[in-house]
């Protein structure tokens, strides 16, 4: 891990692997008659450890007293990346440990009642975190996009008169064994670089935003509590089948009442078993947006756990009943062919970086629906659970990707990397397994899968993921280099990224039809598996125009899209099952000669305003929806273009 100068940090970090276990559940925190939630979002005290070895915080034990007592602090909003919050370039580009601290007044009854578990939960922090409460370490976690938590009841009860001081140290250093990988490179030529100069190299195309990115909160459960619920759904004719398993902690015997309710809170099935199958007559299936007039239908599975005397814990899980299957040419949702017409996204916006932001989330869903997008891929890491919950409710289909992006160095295919990658998949599946919107796992993006160790690596990784969740297909995203197919025999769907007339033959729009056609024929010819064009696109600087089109203009981006679309229209009749534009919106990257303040392949700007390409895509996606979906009759195509446009505006 990050080691400019001192061994202390490395020592602390090596302990990490042992803590990354997933033998307990990771249910999304929620309030119920037995549970309370206290959000700790807002301003935290903050300091970046700019000492030469980045290790002063550990050497001087900054966690032992208030952060303001060991040096200067600044206000830092949580959740947010810290990089774009100040005017200080050294903080924007910082690599190493940063320290967050916040004092919390815990409700007296939580402290007084020994029967209450108090859990501290961090939605995500990038990349490596260590957490202390009142100076005592409670947990550490490796990985930037998944939640972690610790029970802190006994600690806050030690001295109920003092406020609860939470300290979180976060390190964004990426190494060959992290996910995503990176390297730290020291520049020792003193004629060129100052003393101690180093850079963080990364092999992916987005800014390495860091900090506490998702909500931090305290929540309570009773001592005996519902720790996890797993749901798998199916249906037979008109009967829905909800196979469930509940795991309870803190009680040797537990009495359960499991009730499945419809949207009107009417009970449709119930049971008192810890696991079983609930049957739902006249089932309302979960359908994707634009595939049905009532998409995203969710039941509620209420789990009540009690002892002889009273109800102990109540947890309610939203449940969408649907199936997913893959044939050699189709992707089936509820046994009907589903065509992905969607986007690739990033968690990225001005000022906040990767910090969760509700206005942005809701705006993005409105834009996706406006566009007629029915799906997205969580390129290139797991997104916030709050976003997946929106997808469940709105019927937006998700390809759920782990942070396996930029695996390019042969040393990142070693055992330590693989072990960590498997652990990340454990955590991802544990978190997202119950979301009906999640229809496929993506274990990596554009790995150097031509390298000899890649075959074993991906075979193991994909088999492991299928073992965790036999109900969903698994893929990894490849690029137009056919040699990178060593993992392809093990995937269910081939996902290909290509940038013809951009990275290959720049400026030559005329090569797209032939090269794209060849791409599809090659992959299908070899593997006979359905294909998704998982990325395609071109940078366009908003407001830059030229005719005939030139690279970086809005016109060029339009033509790239149209030429790709022509080929998709031929191939989707055969085995192409989807198209995901790169990218939904412009996003920040590291500085470099190919990026003009970030990647400009968005069809929306970073501020979410449409470029010309957004209208091309909107027109196409609504047309596709009318051909392949089941829409309310008045939005049906064919009709005059004017009526059509008017109709789908109304539909929104
Ligand atoms: C890709 C990557 C994506 C990049 C994109 C580009 O293949 O998967 O992360 O941002 O190309 O624009 O270069």
TrEMBL record:
**Where is this protein found?**
Lysosome
Keyword terms, alphabetized: Glycoprotein, Glycosidase, Hydrolase, Lysosome, Signal
Tell me the InterPro entries matching this sequence. Answer: Beta-gal/glucu_dom_sf, Galactose-bd-like_sf, GH, Glyco_hydro_2, Glyco_hydro_2_AS, Glyco_hydro_2_cat, Glyco_hydro_2_CS, Glyco_hydro_2_N
Keyword Signal assigned to the entry: answer is yes
List the GO terms this entry assigns under cellular component, sorted alphabetically: extracellular space; lysosome
Q: What is its EC number?
A: 3.2.1.31
The domain of life is Eukaryota
Query: Could you state one GO biological process linked to this protein?
Result: carbohydrate metabolic process
Catalytic activity reads:
a beta-D-glucuronoside + H2O = D-glucuronate + an alcohol
Glycoside hydrolase family 2 immunoglobulin-like beta-sandwich domain sequence ranges: 224-322
Q: Known activity regulation?
A: Inhibited by L-aspartic acid.
Q: Which family does it belong to?
A: Belongs to the glycosyl hydrolase 2 family.
Subunit text = Homotetramer.
What is the purpose of this protein? Plays an important role in the degradation of dermatan and keratan sulfates.
In Swiss-Prot or TrEMBL terms, this protein is called Beta-glucuronidase
């Amino acid at each position: 891990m990050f080691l400019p100068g001192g061994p202390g940090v490395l020592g602390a970090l090596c302990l990490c692997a042992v803590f990354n276990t997933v033998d307990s559940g990771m249910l999304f925190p929620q309030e119920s008659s037995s549970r309370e939630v206290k959000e700790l979002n807002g301003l935290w005290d903050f300091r970046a450890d700019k000492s030469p070895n980045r290790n002063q915080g550990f050497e001087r034990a900054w966690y032992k007293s208030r952060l303001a007592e060991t040096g200067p602090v600044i206000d830092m909003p949580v959740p947010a990346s810290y990089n774009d919050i100040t005017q200080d370039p050294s903080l924007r580009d910082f690599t190493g440990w940063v320290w967050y601290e916040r004092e919390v007044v815990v409700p007296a009854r939580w402290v007084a009642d020994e029967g209450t578990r108090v859990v501290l939960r961090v939605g995500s922090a990038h990349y490596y975190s260590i957490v202390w409460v009142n100076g005592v370490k409670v947990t550490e976690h490796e990985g930037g996009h998944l939640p972690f938590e610790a029970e802190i009841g006994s600690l806050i009860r030690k001295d109920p008169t003092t406020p609860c001081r939470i300290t979180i140290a976060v390190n964004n250093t990426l190494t060959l064994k992290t996910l995503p990988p990176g390297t730290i490179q020291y520049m020792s030529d003193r004629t060129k670089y100052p003393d101690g100069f180093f850079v963080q190299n990364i092999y992916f195309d987005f800014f390495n935003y860091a900090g506490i990115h998702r909500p931090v909160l305290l929540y309570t459960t009773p001592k005996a509590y519902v720790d996890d619920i797993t749901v798998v759904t199916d249906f037979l004719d008109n009967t829905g089948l909800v196979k469930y398993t509940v795991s309870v902690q803190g009680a040797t015997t537990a009495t359960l009442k499991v009730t499945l309710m419809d949207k009107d809170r009417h009970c449709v099935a119930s049971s008192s078993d810890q696991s079983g199958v609930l049957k739902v007559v006249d089932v309302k299936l979960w359908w994707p947006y634009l595939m049905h007039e009532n998409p995203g239908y969710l039941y509620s599975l209420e789990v009540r756990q009690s002892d002889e005397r009273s109800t102990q814990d109540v947890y309610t899980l939203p449940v969408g009943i649907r199936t997913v299957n893959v044939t050699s040419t189709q992707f089936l949702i509820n046994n009907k062919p589903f065509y992905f017409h969607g986007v690739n996204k990033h968690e990225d916006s001005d000022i906040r970086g990767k910090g969760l932001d509700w206005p942005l989330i809701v705006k993005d869903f409105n834009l996706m629906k406006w566009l007629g997008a029915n799906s997205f891929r969580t390129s290139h890491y797991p997104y916030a659970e709050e976003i997946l919950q929106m997808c469940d409710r709105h019927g937006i289909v998700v390809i759920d990707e782990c942070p396996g992006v930029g695996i390019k160095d042969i040393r990142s295919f070693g055992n330590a990397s693989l072990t960590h990658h498997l652990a990340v998949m454990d955590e991802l599946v544990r978190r997202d397994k119950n979301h009906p919107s999640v229809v496929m796992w993506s274990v990596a993006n554009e790995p150097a899968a031509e390298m000899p160790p890649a075959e074993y690596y991906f075979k193991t990784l994909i088999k492991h993921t299928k073992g965790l969740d036999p109900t969903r297909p698994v893929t990894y995203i490849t690029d137009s280099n056919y040699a990178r197919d060593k993992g392809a025999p093990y995937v269910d769907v081939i996902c290909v990224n290509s940038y013809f007339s951009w990275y290959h033959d720049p400026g030559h729009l005329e090569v797209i039809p032939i090269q794209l056609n060849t791409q599809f024929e090659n992959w299908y010819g070899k593997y006979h598996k359905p294909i998704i064009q998982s990325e395609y696109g071109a940078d366009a600087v908003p407001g830059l125009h030229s005719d005939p089109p030139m690279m970086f203009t809005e016109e060029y981006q339009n033509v790239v899209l149209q030429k790709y679309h022509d080929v998709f229209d031929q191939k989707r009749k055969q085995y192409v099952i989807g198209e995901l534009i790169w990218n939904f919106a412009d996003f920040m990257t590291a500085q470099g000669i190919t990026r003009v303040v970030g990647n400009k392949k968005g069809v929306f700007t970073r501020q979410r305003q449409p470029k010309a390409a957004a209208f091309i895509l909107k027109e196409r996606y609504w047309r596709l929806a009318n051909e392949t979906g089941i829409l309310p009759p008045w939005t049906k195509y064919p009709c005059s273009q004017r009526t059509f446009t008017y109709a789908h505006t109304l539909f929104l």
